[in-house]
Amino acid sequence: MDEKAFSKELDQWIEQLNECKQLSESQVKTLCEKAKEILTKESNVQEVRYRERITILRGNHESRQITQVYGFYDECLRKYGNANVWKYFTDLFDYLPLTALVDGQGPMCDLLWSDPDDRGGWGISPRGAGYTFGQDISETFNHANGLTLVSRAHQLVMEGYNWCHDRNVVTIFSAPNYCYRCGNQAAIMELDDTLKYSFLQFDPAPRRGEPHVTRRTPDYFL
């Protein structure tokens, strides 16, 4: 299939997903194979349909073990009746890079697992991996690298995003109602051509038969 025909098919799939209709197993396989084909040729990961606009990075949850703990594996089984779709995606995750440079500027267990903290300096992370870092660390890092902001994920925040360290760091969490029990909103950060940012918050899609979830942050994320 040529690029023009495939782009048209991708648009149809996006429209299908916008209508909350899941892709078929064969469509997921084709999509993942196309993404891997692109990623093997790119220095930065770029999404299949909007490769000049969107960059995807790998986090600590894109491993086979973690996806079996936090619901992705179970969701694939529930929706498709087998583990094939889970395998397509976890194979694709192996191609995702850990970092990206924006306009030639920018900042691997420590990078993926470390969290900002109210206390200054470096600290031992209660997660058992990575470190905690204070505002002084964030300010020094941004100044040394000519940056104004570190945008990161990895921690549940109930409104979907949260500023800290005098706006040197922002946490963005894009999984609504995490683990189907946390009741949190999710958010994405949008940047325009002048690097002005805005946040789009969203709630989880309702699931029939699911009880109401109280918005409470689990101890693990505190």
Tags for this model:
222 residues, alpha/beta, 3 domains, three-stranded mixed β-sheet
Low-confidence stretches: none
Mean pLDDT: 83
**Order of SSEs:** HHHHHHEEEHEEEEE
Helicity, as a percent range: 25-40%
State the total count of DSSP E strands.
Answer: 8
Cα-based radius of gyration, to the nearest Å = 19 Å
- Give the CA-CA distance, first to last residue: 49 Å
- Largest beta sheet, briefly? 3 strands, mixed
Which range does the strand content fall in?
5-15%
Largest beta sheet: strand ordering: 1-3-2
Tally of separate domains: 3
Structural class: alpha/beta
Helix segment tally: 7
Q: Overall 3D geometry?
A: globular
Polypeptide structure, described:
The chain is an alpha/beta fold. It folds into three domains: 25-39 and 53-97, no CATH class; 100-147, no CATH class; 150-221, no CATH class. It has seven helices and eight strands. The chain has helices at residues 3-18, 25-39, 64-69, 72-80, 84-93, 109-113, 135-145, and strands spanning 115-116, 122-124, 131-133, 150-152, 161-164, 169-172, 186-191, 197-202. It has a three-stranded mixed β-sheet. It has a three-stranded mixed β-sheet with strand order 4-6-5. Strands 7-8 form a two-stranded antiparallel sheet. Strand 5 (161-164) and strand 6 form a beta hairpin. Helix 2 (25-39) packs parallel to helix 5 (84-93). The longest helix has 16 residues, at 3-18. The radius of gyration is 19 Å and the shape is globular. The N and C termini lie far apart (49 Å). The mean pLDDT is 83.
